[in-house]
Design goal:
The structure is a homodimer. The first copy, chain A, has helices spanning about 10-15, 20-30, 35-50, 55-60, 80-95, 105-120, 165-180, 195-210, 225-240, 250-265, 300-315, and strands at about 65-70, 95-100, 125, 145-150, 160-165, 185-190, 220, 245-250, 275-280, 290-295, 320-325, 330. The first copy, chain A, is an alpha/beta fold. In chain A, the strands form two sheets. A six-stranded parallel sheet of chain A has the order 2-1-3-4-5-11, with helices on both faces. The first copy, chain A, has a six-stranded mixed sheet with strand order 7-6-8-9-10-12, with helices on both faces. In chain A, strand 1 (about 65-70), helix 5 and strand 2 (about 95-100) form a beta-alpha-beta unit. The interface between A and B is large, with 56 and 56 residues. Chain B binds a DNA duplex through helix 2 and helix 4.
DNA sequence: TTGAAAGCGCTAACAT
DNA sequence: ATGTTAGCGCTTTCAA
């Protein structure tokens, strides 16, 4: 029931156009190496036959794909999507295609994709997930294709890296809350062991130390970067004998959770308490109240990492193999000065 | 300076293992066709040489890739990310890999990717963008590889399709607002000409007609699915001699914009006015007030479309080539009964 | 259960 | 400017 004709190949076109396959190939890939008349003849033959290039054959022959794979733990995470935008645009600019692999935070799928990447499925690899080739196979064969990691550095790896200066950023935000006159400044943490969390918490500590304020363990609450964790933290703070003056949540979702939690208890933010977040995700500005937060230049992270990768792929020496991008405080309505 | 050794090929492994290349190939792809002893020898040789398969070669030979391409207009759009999750999981379940192409709403990039897809870069195509192969090339050669479109139907195409029953959904939501006792029900539209917009507006009209309420043009405002459009609409409503009782925004971002706009003018939602959205994006529940909205089963759209595609790829007859998924009202705090 | 051998469809020397 | 030719690295009949 499938009476399809054989797909036309390059020699079908060549025959019809009355030239050699080499000429067809050139007419398609490097038109200016071919006489206009010939080019036209080829174009006509392509039309007529309905020829489409076979990529597998080309890739096999050229040993290149002009494609780059971005491995993302979770495409539905609003954080990564902006980074991807920067990657996508930059690649396009340089004539590469982007393919995205969503691993769903599943190590198996991660390995799968990485393996395929090594198998020549793409020319380069962008790792957005802070780990790869986990302990599973310890043969530790170094990545055979150019690879750059971004957003999270991979523990125990010296892969080229582009990230936000998380520690500095967290220090700055804490310092900002202190400058606002707050003294009891709480902190809602990210997942234990997470590398971002470590950096941000270190920054928080740095700022308090600079003001000779002791860490108050009752103000430091666990979290996991979810809205729910923020709500839970709010409840926990409410059960304290004395509320903090301000809380720095180590990401925006938790900051929003805090606001909801406090609002639900009849406490207004920022009148009763100041709340600051981290990331400046899309909805931070739209929130009620609009969130004061640390803006990570997610787009820029993608752009820089991609530039680095392209240099690597094309055999140039990248300007730098380690980039730490500054983050800036975005002051909105969830914090206020205490005077 | 690049003293890399030649990548090992299958015959290197074969030689080392003392077998033929055919046996190596089988040991890798269909282990149970090979004697355990041989299999072990091959495995050892693979280890020793550090052999990795060359995908281009395999794809060329087998004429398959076991990969599927999802073409997305904008990965940073929260709507699509959930759909992608459903796609990704379903594909994985069936042994396919997903690659995502972000076209950045750019027709050129769209065509690029589609072309590569036809060139055998993948086995199937998932179109999330509501158009493809736009007027540019009118040679209208039918897609050579299995293709399913989702989310938005493509005008003037009879591609297999999975979508939300937008018209029904919009009718239901409008009906709901009417049931709540609202009479002057406003509508904030999506981009003119957008197919979703047409369906949703039709549903809005259906509901009003069923109650014999005339369309009031002053209550129907243009929009473009952005938060800003919602804010602008709020301002426009505020300048009316009489405010509507309720407004149905044709997506969540605009509903949030409306709430901000009214809140900024000192009007409380839902006390002064009810606001309903469409989509139930991630932040709808977290918003202040939590948004009453139409929940599209985005994950399910992805799942069903992917099943359909796999059937197509593997030569089975899909159960259906046209699926319209119902959407359900999620009642939250941005609407209230008027009594 | 294994091996020999013939391509899959293209591109890039090299020659003309 | 164009043609000839030799593979790229794998899988898969077919035969043993």
């Amino acid at each position: 029931m499938d009476e399809r004709v054989r797909k036309p190949r390059i020699d079908d076109v060549a025959r019809l156009a009355g030239v050699s396959t080499a000429t067809v190939s050139r007419a398609l890939a490097t038109p200016d190496q071919v006489k206009p008349t010939t080019r036209a003849a080829v174009a006509r033959a392509v039309q007529e036959t309905g020829y489409v290039l076979n990529l597998a054959a080309r890739n096999l022959r050229t040993r290149r794909t002009r494609a780059v794979l971005a491995v993302v733990p979770d495409v539905s995470n609003v954080f990564f999507t902006q980074v991807l935008r920067g990657i996508s645009d930059t690649l396009h600019l340089h004539g590469y295609r982007l393919v995205i692999a969503d691993t769903g935070n599943d190590a198996r799928r991660e390995r799968d994709h990485a393996e395929f990447a090594q198998a020549g499925w793409v020319d380069g690899l962008l790792l957005l997930n802070g780990r790869l080739l986990s302990p599973a196979s310890s043969d530790a064969r170094p990545a055979a294709i150019p690879t750059v990691s971004l957003c999270e550095r991979i523990t125990g790896s010296d892969l080229p890296l582009v990230e936000t200066a998380n520690r500095d950023a967290a220090r700055d935000m804490t310092e900002h809350l202190l400058q606002l006159g707050h003294r009891r400044v709480g902190y809602v943490a990210g997942p234990a062991g997470n590398i971002l969390e470590r950096d941000r918490f270190a920054g928080y500590r740095d700022a308090l130390a600079a003001h000779a304020i002791d860490l108050d363990p009752s103000l430091i609450l666990p979290g996991d970067y979810t809205l729910g964790a923020g709500e839970a933290a709010a409840a926990a703070y409410l059960s304290l004998p004395e509320l903090p003056d301000a809380v720095f949540a180590s990401n925006d979702a938790m900051a929003m959770g805090l606001i909801r939690g406090f609002a639900g208890a009849g406490l207004s933010v920022p009148d009763a308490i100041s709340i600051a977040g981290f990331d400046d995700i899309e909805f931070a500005a739209a929130y009620n109240p609009a969130l004061t937060t640390m803006r990570q230049e997610r787009n820029e992270i993608g752009v820089q990492a991609t530039r680095m990768l392209i240099d690597l792929i094309e055999g140039r020496e990248p300007t730098s193999l380690q980039i730490s991008l500054p983050a800036a405080i975005v002051k909105r309505n969830s914090t206020r000065s205490r005077r």
